[in-house]
Amino acid sequence: MHRLPPLPSPPRPPVRPPFPVIAVVAPLVGAVVIGLVTGSPFVLLFAVLSPLIAIATVLDGRRQARRAVRDESARFARECLEYEQAVLVAHADERADLDARHPLGPAADPDDRGAVRLGTAPAPSAMAPDAPPSSGDPVVDERLRGLLDRAHRHPALPVLLPRGPLLLQGTGAVAESLARRLQAEPGVVLERVAPADACPATATVLRVHSATRVVLHRPGGEPIVVRPELVSVRQLDQHTASRSTTAGPPPRVAWSELALRAAAEHVEGVPIGLDGSGAVGIDLERVGPHALVGGTTGSGKSEFLRALALSWAARLPPSAVHLLFVDFKGGATFAGLTRLPHVIGLVTDLDPLVAQRTLLSLRAELRRRERVLVDAGLRDVAQRPDVLARLVVLVDEFAALIDAFPELHAPFADLSARGRSLGVHLVLGTQHPAGAVRDAVAANCALRIAFRLSASAATGFIGRHAAEVASAPPGRALVIDADGARAVQVAVVDDADIVAVQERWASQPPIQSPWLPPLPERIDRAELAAFLAAPHPDPPRRGDDRNPITPALSGALPALAFGLLDEPSELRQRAALHEPASGGSLAVAGAPRSGRTTALIALRDAALEAACGVVVLPTSVADAWCLLEQLAEQPPTAALLLADDLDLLLADAGELAAELLQRWDAAVRAIRRVGGGAVAAVGAASSARSMLGTRFESRLLLRAVDADDHQLSGAPRGLFDRAAPPGRGWWHDVHVQVLDAGEGVLRPDRVVVPEWVPTAADALVVSRRPAAVADALRAAHPGHRIERDAAAAREAEGGATIELAPRLIIADPDAWHAAWAPFTAARRTTTVVLAQAESADARALLGVRATLPPLDPGCGDVWVLEPGEGVVRRRWPGLAAG
User: Which residues does the annotation say bind ATP (predicted)?
Assistant: First the structure.
């Protein structure tokens, strides 16, 4: 409930424009100046414009002021009408709130607390705003005072009386009806007095005048005219009968006391608390099969779930009932109860991965139970309770669970629809049941347990019983089932109660979890092979019945096993397979030390075991460039191309990255045409998105750099695990653990670069470090003469060698440009070598337009242009030695 906003603002007075002094003076001054310049007296006629402009400006200002006054008056009148409507709505809300907190009827407060509702009367409203300052306009101030008076005075608010002695004066049917009602109120002592009798000044007196007028006289207060509210004779009789046979629930119930009373009274179902007549139990098998629990924070909702779980464990052995706790308040609700032998798991919001895995396993558990019933020839678990144990899923804060995992709506709807015959029961607790639980689930929850709720939440949850829980004390619940509604004080569990139940079943064998254990943090190929060879209760899915570790029979790569998949929704774990033929190229993305290289090694070993070829891309740009060009021209059959840190390789390529990526694409296309495949490991998927694009049809997503990278990579939302072990990730939205490589190392393929050795003929060398290159070549080729003069190229024209020893003529690009004519003539018949030069030098001196292959300068790589041929990459041993 909120206060009304401030009253509408008064109309603003119009802004009076000042006299246009400048507009008057300017034409006059201009006319005088022009007249002096031109010498014409007729120019002075312009001075006549001054009074015209002044008059027009004043008239226009008055017109604008009148329009502003009309607009402000219309705005004020409109806002006043809107405010009157807002007052009506606010008063209705205020009345509804007080009606919910102080409902009519003697049964509204059976514990002799609070006040008695007599009727309604005009009263000051708590929602009225403060008085605004005076606007100076009497008409406007009068209108605002009227609005303020209307907002301050509610026409009909409940009139409440303290419980205690009351004097009633009056005769007739109205007085008799009011007397019967007040006498039924607990804690009220009513005395009838004659209309003519004098009443003490210290007494509270009710004088009945008519059916719509009762005057209330309070000690020391002004009389209040009240419109009485009466109840029917039938309602009074029902209330009197219920009070005569049933006392209210106690303010607190210990679970140990509840257990003793339930056993003595032979309560049916699972005991949860006490009402006025004894222990109360709920029977989900009979009236459920599921229950909804609603209540605000601190109302006792969580304590009810604890009492229900412990009572169920005390009533049945672990072989007959299994308990699964789901606590999305951090796990505190079911603290201590996990020691019970009936408990098969605790799911909290502190570990989203475990939560999702466990909850998805429930759907597979339903299918398993269906198969068990079919094999036993049964339609319902109630026909043979010994065939399947009851599974009770208790959820605290169901709304938070669904907010974290929206995809669980469907599994819970499935559980609620099929749970009865399969022996599965849901108990869903939340603060706002009507908004958090969809109809598909709520329709199957015949049992409602309502603790203290707001009026709106209670109305949507339990309808006409909403007023009964509006001010319920902690632990007090209204249990509503097919038999009606009853108030129950829920039992409180302590550690001694849990220990007693635990010791009771200490001799029982431990129960087996219905779902598989989580993926191990390490698995090697031998363990995977043993896993594949072992029999499994569930048949493999369609397309998975092949042996992934067999040689290729059709000239193409087979399915390659690289890890273990966890499918909780199928209650099984199976091999993770990459099928290059159908899955296309594979990208392995992840943070450093997430297991990217390990995944490549696992795929390499799988290909080798299948007798297929493996090509590992070198880590240097020059060698990778060369190998990719070779693969594009002559791809090996049924081979697997692996590239570790492809994104870093492209970063090293710099301006050649785009062309290197094109060569990767060409090599991959060629390899796939002959039955092969390609796998590349990259870093953060978010930074490699442009490179990945549609280039990789499949993706293995290992631990991401952070939660944002996890989401951008396409992995399931909300399941980022910073502590995931190496090799843990997602394969087609399924959790996977990659095989451990052990001591395995991914060694890049060695690229053999053809050597170039000077012949008996001269050669021209272009270098940006001619002195260093010359020194290296003198030591490496003592039989050659080293020339540092570009002009010596003239002697090399025609291809003949004048000296006895062949020459290596070395100069920098500028020197060769200076000797352009002899250089151009000599290169037609003489070999040109670019050593420690740049591609721009080749374009400028040799006219090369195509992209040159990258070089590895540390290995003595050079570009060589033989006469009549193209530029190629070669390795000059003599230069490498230097």
Answer: 295-302
In this structure, the answer to whether residues 7 and 63 fall within a common structural domain is: yes
Pair (728, 772) in one structural domain: no
Asked if residue 294 is part of any domain, the answer here is: yes
Q: Are residues 705 and 769 in the same domain?
A: no
At 359-388, the pLDDT tens digits run 777 778 888 888 889 988 888 888 888 888
Is the model more confident about 406 or about 240?
Answer: 406
Positive or negative: CA dihedral 438, 440, 443, 444: negative
Is residue 21 domain-resident?
Answer: yes
Q: What is the total count of domains within the chain?
A: 4
Q: Which of 553, 759, 511 is nearest to 675 (CA)?
A: 553
**55 shares its domain with 99:** yes
**For residue 759, which amino acid is it?**
T
SS3 215: strand
- Please list, in sequence order, all residues whose beta carbon lies within 8 angstroms of the beta carbon of residue 831, skipping any fewer than 6 positions away: 759, 761, 763, 764, 864, 865, 866, 867
For residue 253, what are the contacts with CB-CB under 8 A and spacing of at least 6?
273, 274, 475, 489, 490, 491, 492
- Residue found under tokens 């006054």: 69
Identify whether residues 718 and 777 lie together within a single domain: no
Examine residue 239 and state whether it is found in any structural domain, yes or no: no
Q: Which domain holds residue 301?
A: 266-441+497-504
CATH number, domain of 388, equals 3.40.50.300
Give the model confidence (pLDDT) of 480-534 as tens digits. 887 778 899 999 999 999 999 999 998 888 787 777 778 888 888 888 887 777 6
Other CB atoms within a 10 A radius of the CB of residue 415 amount to 25
Nearest C-alpha neighbor of 765 from the set 788, 783, 781: 788
Residues 145 and 35 in one domain: yes
In terms of domains, do 719 and 814 share one?
A: no
Across the chain, mean pLDDT equals: 83
Q: Establish if 687 belongs to a structural domain.
A: yes
Q: Known binding site: residues?
A: 295-302
Residues annotated as binding site for ATP? 295-302
Reading the block at residue 242, the tokens are: 């219920």
pTM for this prediction: 0.58
**Quick one: 377 exposed, middle or buried, by C-beta within 10 A (0-12, 13-18, 19+)?**
exposed
Whether pLDDT at 803 is above 80: no
**Exposed/middle/buried for residue 398 (C-beta within 10 Å: 0-12, 13-18, 19+):** buried
Residue given tokens 């022009």 in the structure block: 34
Q: Rounded distance, CA 73 to CA 94, Å?
A: 31
Same domain, yes or no: 775 and 697: no
